[in-house]
């Protein structure tokens, strides 16, 4: 187990090194001179040179890269072009909102997906299965910004039950926190939940049709016991994976939903950084997303080995 | 816990728009106390930072407008300069020495007294550190304190637009001496304005009333700027009472809102203008008849409708009608026949192709270009709309690598900003290559003319030639569009998009 863990961590480190090269190059391959864009149309050559020097953009790319990487390893991601604050503090400020929305959305998603997927799998082809399929098809295909705006118009506009958006920390006012969380969590939860529902359904069907379930039923074991012990355990495996992937995606910010609901998360930050060509923030954010994906993958793999010992080799 | 009020319908009856009522001094300093007397305004984006000399972002200026002061400010009615931190000013007969007399009994938010040293410090900071607005001091030789209440600015040549240069917007704010060393100006603000900057995060920025404000304490206790990027959400927040003011309105809903009693909607043509420009070095666009043909073929009303859902004022000159310098001149009547005749007169063999460079940085240029393309087709000009990223666009503009392009100039106040660098021979923004000795003479004369009426006359004459020659093909001034709750008083919409909440009273 320990060797397996070490090997996986080693692999992740290699991937991360690769990702950091790609992140850095991506940002520098984007057409356009950030200094020039930051200054607008009226500026002197002196001003231009000064800003280039200040932001280190006058050094060779290789030097820029190793400087950035070295500092990043010590937790120094540089300083935002836009606000002059450190990138770490800019990102840290956004974490509470992002974590809140990500976990709330996963809860909503699982609350939709597990019952819906299970019912579908138990009665394949039935009316209820068809309804579930339509619902998840709807969740996947309806644009989230449209769903968000409709919710705002109905619940904040016509009915006046909920605020139109924004974020209040839980520590400040739990009631206000919950009121503002409902709509964005619902939109992202429905989208993620629709994806997960299909996985639940297919893995359940597979587990139900497997030999050892039939054997267990033939032995005359009670259905409930068969279901919980044999079906669920097998069906859980793919569910862990897909939930992990969805969580990683949610943790890297859901740009559109954050914009619609004025939710101050990482997605909104990434978009602002792109618009303002705020390279340091953009690099820091993408690097963080990569780390989140790798860590979650690692956790998912470890959970796998815990659930299914055959994977340990 | 803040409860969500259902949509409050205005029972107060139809309230007249305040768009023409003056602000005036607020005398009601009672203030309700508590959080109920705070104006919540929905703005479209988060300020990038709060250093007025460094930022160039409008969301920052929306906040700074209420926190800092300049020596002079644009008047809300016609944008001419009026007193602010300076009570009056005069210029010597040779036009080279400007003397500003400063207001007394003004304090900064940290309690320090405002005097001439602060003005010298602020202006020299912009000049010495070559900050964004250093170009505004290009003719300034020195800024000196004669005594604590008097500042003298010496210029190398007569600069009649100096008040406009130092008062146009809050980028020329006065900071207390030594502020850059004493404070972190990116996150803190120390102004002389009606509100103090209390806090700012990723959701909102909060201001509190400054009781010792020289213009009298504001009647509200504070302002909360809440960032709501999605216009439909901002409008909903206004309609259900979460916010009392917004400038983020879905453009396609402006017309229907005009007849809605639940919100007060105000629009006015802004000081920004959008234009098309052709490259004189690329035939046949160097031929004035060809440019006039194109100017005659374009229907500005249709362009405005498509690019701005009609939320703009078509204009054949640069300056909007609210300005003292507005010049009512519109020689081009859209006509395919006349445009075709002009092209024939120029001896051009149609069809010809014209590349039209636009950028997705400003999506309205892309929409406008598509409309223009459809309008030029009937006269035998095939428009090739080239959408590039803004950096490429700027590079190609600088290298003269274009047949024609579309863009706008934003935040202009003085006619010098509108016409000088864009149309004088060899001007720093004259990318089209326009050169007309008569225009040069008029612009140079206007740049040193100190009498306002004579100055306007000179700019009118220059503008007429610029329009006739189609140096720029002017399209429209976009509207400033703002809305607030019925019963909110003491707010005035302005063409320069400055938002002042100091005299506001809540319903």
From TrEMBL, chain B:
One of its GO terms (molecular function) is peptide transmembrane transporter activity. Gene3D superfamilies: Dipeptide-binding Protein, Domain 1, Dipeptide-binding Protein, Domain 3, Periplasmic binding protein-like II. GO terms for biological process: peptide transport. Keywords: Signal, Transport. Coiled coil: none annotated. Residues 1-21 form the signal peptide. PROSITE patterns: PROKAR_LIPOPROTEIN (PS51257). It comes from the Bacteria. Residues 81-420 form the Solute-binding protein family domain. Pfam families: SBP_bac_5. InterPro entries: Peptide/Ni-bd (IPR030678), SBP_5 (IPR039424), SBP_5_dom (IPR000914). PANTHER family: OLIGOPEPTIDE-BINDING PROTEIN APPA, PERIPLASMIC BINDING COMPONENT OF ABC TRANSPORTER. Belongs to the bacterial solute-binding protein 5 family. This is Peptide/nickel transport system substrate-binding protein.
């Amino acid at each position: 187990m320990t060797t397996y863990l070490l090997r996986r961590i080693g692999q992740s480190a290699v991937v991360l090194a690769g990702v950091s090269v790609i992140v850095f190059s991506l940002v520098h391959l984007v057409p356009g001179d950030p200094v020039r864009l930051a200054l607008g149309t009226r500026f002197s050559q002196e001003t231009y040179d000064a800003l280039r020097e200040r932001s280190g953009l006058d050094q060779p790319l290789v030097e820029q890269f190793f400087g950035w990487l070295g500092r990043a390893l010590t937790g120094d991601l540089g300083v935002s072009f836009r606000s002059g604050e450190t990138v770490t503090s800019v990102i840290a400020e956004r974490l509470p909102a992002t974590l809140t929305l990500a976990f709330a959305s996963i809860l909503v998603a699982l609350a939709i997906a597990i019952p819906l997927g299970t019912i579908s799998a138990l009665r394949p082809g039935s009316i209820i299965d068809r309804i579930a399929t339509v619902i998840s098809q709807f969740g996947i295909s309806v644009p989230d910004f449209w769903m968000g705006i409709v919710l705002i118009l109905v619940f904040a506009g016509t009915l006046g039950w909920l605020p139109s958006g924004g974020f209040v920390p839980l520590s400040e006012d739990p009631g206000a926190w919950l009121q503002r969380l409902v709509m964005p969590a619902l939109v992202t939860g429905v989208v993620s939940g629709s994806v997960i529902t299909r996985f639940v359904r297919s893995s359940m069907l597979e587990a139900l049709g497997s030999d050892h379930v039939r054997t267990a039923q033939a032995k005359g074991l009670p259905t409930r016991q068969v279901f919980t012990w044999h079906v669920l355990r097998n069906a859980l495996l793919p569910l862990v994976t897909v939930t992990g992937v969805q969580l990683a995606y949610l943790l890297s910010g859901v740009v559109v939903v954050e914009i619609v609901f004025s939710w101050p998360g990482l997605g909104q930050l990434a978009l602002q950084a792109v618009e303002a060509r705020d390279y340091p923030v953009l690099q820091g954010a993408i690097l963080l997303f990569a780390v989140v994906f790798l860590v979650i993958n690692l956790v998912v793999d470890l959970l796998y080995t815990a659930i299914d010992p055959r994977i340990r080799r | 816990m803040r409860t969500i009020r259902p949509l409050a319908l205005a029972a107060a009856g139809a309230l007249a728009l305040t768009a023409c009522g003056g602000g005036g001094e607020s005398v009601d300093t009672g203030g309700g106390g508590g959080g109920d007397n705070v104006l919540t305004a929905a703005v479209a984006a988060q300020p990038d930072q709060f250093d007025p000399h460094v930022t160039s972002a409008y969301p920052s200026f929306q906040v700074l407008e209420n926190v800092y002061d300049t020596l002079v400010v644009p008047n809300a009615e016609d944008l001419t300069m009026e007193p602010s931190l300076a009570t009056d000013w005069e210029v010597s007969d040779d036009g080279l020495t400007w003397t500003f007399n400063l207001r007394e009994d003004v304090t900064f938010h940290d309690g320090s007294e405002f005097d001439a040293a602060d003005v010298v410090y602020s202006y020299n900071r912009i000049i010495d550190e070559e900050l964004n607005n250093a170009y505004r001091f290009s003719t300034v030789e020195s800024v000196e304190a004669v005594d604590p209440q008097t500042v003298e600015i010496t210029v190398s040549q007569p600069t009649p637009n100096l008040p406009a240069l130092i008062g146009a917007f809050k980028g020329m704010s006065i900071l207390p001496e030594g502020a850059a060393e004493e404070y972190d100006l990116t996150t803190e603000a120390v102004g002389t304005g009606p509100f103090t900057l209390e806090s700012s995060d990723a959701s909102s920025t909060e201001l509190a009333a400054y009781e010792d404000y020289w213009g009298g304490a504001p009647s509200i206790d504070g302002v909360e700027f809440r960032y709501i990027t999605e216009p439909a959400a901002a409008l909903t927040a206004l309609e259900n009472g979460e916010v009392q003011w917004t400038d983020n309105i879905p453009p396609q809903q402006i017309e229907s809102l005009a007849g809605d009693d639940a919100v007060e909607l105000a629009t006015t043509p802004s000081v920004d203008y959008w234009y098309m420009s052709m490259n004189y070095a690329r035939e046949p666009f160097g031929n004035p008849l060809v440019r006039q043909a194109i100017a005659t073929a374009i229907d500005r009303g249709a362009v405005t409708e498509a690019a701005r859902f009609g939320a703009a004022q078509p204009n054949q000159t640069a300056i909007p009608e609210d300005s003292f310098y507005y010049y009512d001149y519109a020689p081009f009547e859209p006509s395919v026949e006349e445009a075709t005749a002009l092209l024939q007169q120029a001896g051009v063999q149609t069809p010809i192709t014209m590349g039209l460079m636009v950028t997705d940085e400003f999506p309205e240029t892309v929409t406008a270009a598509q409309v223009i393309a459809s309008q030029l087709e009937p006269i035998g000009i095939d428009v090739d709309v080239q959408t590039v990223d803004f950096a490429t666009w700027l590079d190609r503009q600088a290298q003269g690598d274009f047949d024609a392009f579309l863009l706008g100039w934003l935040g202009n106040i003085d006619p010098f900003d509108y016409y000088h660098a864009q149309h004088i021979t060899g001007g720093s923004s004259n990318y089209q290559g326009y050169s007309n000795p008569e225009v040069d003479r008029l612009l140079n004369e206007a740049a040193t003319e100190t009498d306002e009426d004579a100055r306007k006359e000179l700019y009118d004459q220059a503008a007429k030639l610029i329009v006739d020659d189609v140096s720029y093909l002017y399209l429209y001034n976009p509207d400033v569009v703002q809305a607030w709750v019925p019963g909110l008083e003491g707010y005035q919409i302005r063409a320069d998009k400055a938002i002042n909440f100091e005299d506001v009273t809540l319903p």
